[in-house]
Specification:
Length: 68
């Protein structure tokens, strides 16, 4: 996917609490997708997900398919 314009600030996942803080920061993009980065190393780069891919990921998390 081409780089999308980031239209919000990054927000740290609420799962980043406690001793094991291996998590991500997420921001909205202009096309309705999301930009994702490592919360411990934000300068390492970004991954972009279009709206359909992000929705499928969220559906999978809710269904227990992703996320351990």
């Amino acid at each position: 996917m081409k780089h999308a314009e980031i239209v919000t600030g990054f927000k740290k996942s609420t799962a980043s609490q406690g001793a094991a803080q291996d998590c991500v920061d997420v921001a909205h993009t202009a096309d309705g997708g999301r930009a994702v980065r490592d919360s411990k190393d934000p300068a390492a780069g970004l991954q972009f997900y279009g709206p359909d891919h992000w929705a499928a990921f969220i559906d999978g998390v809710k269904a227990g398919t992703f996320g351990g």
